Amino acid sequence: MPAIVVAVVVGVLFFLGYRYYSSYLARSVYALDPAFVTPAHEFNDGNDFVPTNKHVLFGHHFTSVAGAAPIVGPAIAVFWGWGPALLWIVLGTIFAAGVHDFGALAVSVRHKAKSIGTLAGDVINGRARMLFMIIIFFLLTLVNAVFAVVIGNLFVGNPAAVIPIVVEIPMAMAIGQYIYKTRSSALIPSIVGVIILYALILVGQAFPISLDGLAEALGVEQTRNVWVVLLFIYTWAASRIPVWMLLQPRDYINSHQLFIALGVIALGVIVGMNTIQAPVINDVPEGSPNFFPFLFITVACGAVSGFHSLVSSGTTSKQLDKETDARYVGYMGAVGEGSLATGAVLAATAGVAASEVEWNALYADFATASGGAAGNFVNGVAQFANNLAIPLDLATTFAAVVVISFAATTMDTGVRLQRYLVQEIGEQLNIRVLARNLTVATTVAVLIPLAMALIPGEGEAGYTFGVLWQLFGTTNQLTAGLALSVIAVWVTRRGRNPLAAIIPLVFLLVMTTWALILNLRNFIEAEQWVLAPLDALIFVLAIWLIVEAALALMKARRERPAVPVDGTGTGRESVVARANPDEATSDVPLGGSDRDDRR
């Protein structure tokens, strides 16, 4: 199968999904109102709340949600065949991620740009907020652990990428200082930063850096683990400094890299006319994880990501100029992520191998597939870049720099968010040393994922990575499930059809709990007494989420208004407000209109 045919078909399906399904969601499910005064206008402070052009906001949102996850997950999932992986990416993007990302943004905007965690407490109940905090804690722990392993493996396999990635840190800090002191636009400095970053690839080629000698001197069996420890030392320091000094300018640079990478994949596929060498459905070895349910939690962010609800309701909802822009920003952000995941599938099936025999060697078993997924993507993208007359060694380092940059940005954000969460948990439990002491909170946020990343596995790649990725996938899908349950309850209470949110919610929860049960059995049989209790705890959270969502939906159905709320502020909101006085203060005034409340 020519890769260009797959790319075109997927592109057409994504276009149709945006053109028709997102239009249905905007009109009939979320009832967007162009006259609604968004929080960006209501609370405009020139800092967090800023009305922003929808195209600019889309760029911010897309680069915030897109990272290494939609690359690694699909690159592993093609182990079961590129057909099932791609089918779930397309269906998941159109019918799950689009509903989830768009809905989290729309609901947050209607509730004064509150975060999805706060909305869980407001829309469902107080227990749901605590549930959200616990799930997010595990999600961030696993995000930080798996991406540390990804970066460590890529540094070992691509020593020429070390210098560009390391120099990017002080370069980003210099750009941050310049922007902060001059109050100038980030566009030109960040483009210059990308040019310097790619020029440093030549330096990295001339001076590759390996830590094999250091690992041997320290008696560490896997060089990757030395990199993992260094990465967490770096993130410990990086998470303590203001975001404008490093995190934001690094995001500016990586935002350009994201679009460059997508462009290279698209052009490389067109020019090279690469053919997919992997089977549509793979005959996997006996003893491999089951197709159902593990493919779905392995693809994870490539189809739907709970992490996106944090961004939609965190920063994006504070910058939305018009409520109707939520369709473009939220749904198209999901489509962008699905496009990146599609690129990962093509790189791991059409670019990485010249024959089916070659591909079968790379995906001989699940351990090999999971451990080599990031490397397969790098080599696949390098081949696409080579089609554009870029030397293969330079192309390989370029692809490695792109993936490591995305993963490092995710780690930077993840450790910082973990530290915030540790402090919030400290406040909730009245543990002052966690709530008030920045050093202690940061250390806790670093040590837990570090311990997870260093769990011994089999071989240099380590089967442990595949296990950690599955646990990350289940936790990520639980987060998406919680966000979808908030959306479904909110839509039901406004008298509209919640099936668009309920169907993906049920599917995600079924796949997640199924995977958790199978993994728990495997962990117990293998006597993995670290992973088994963790899996069991996540399973308890899944059951808790199912119960809370079911109770909240049944209650919402009993209280739903006879006439659907159309979002135009007609006064019919009072039906909901009278039935739900607690919600009235966070959505619309009792008996009043949306617009009147915000004049």
UniProtKB/TrEMBL annotation:
Give the membrane topology: Multi-pass membrane protein
Q: Fetch the InterPro entries from UniProt.
A: CstA, CstA_N
Q: Which family does it belong to?
A: Belongs to the peptide transporter carbon starvation (CstA) (TC 2.A.114) family.
Q: Where is the CstA N-terminal domain?
A: 3-350, 368-515
Q: What's the protein here called? A: Carbon starvation protein A
In which compartments does the protein localize?
A: Cell membrane
Region: Disordered, residue numbers: 563-599
What are the record keywords, sorted? Cell membrane, Membrane, Transmembrane, Transmembrane helix
Q: Which residues cross the membrane?
A: 85-109, 130-155, 161-180, 187-207, 227-247, 259-279, 291-311, 331-354, 394-412, 433-455, 467-491, 498-517, 529-553
Q: Give a Pfam family name.
A: CstA
**Can you name the source organism?**
Blastococcus carthaginiensis
Q: State the PANTHER family in the record.
A: INNER MEMBRANE PEPTIDE TRANSPORTER (PTHR30252), PEPTIDE TRANSPORTER CSTA (PTHR30252:SF0)
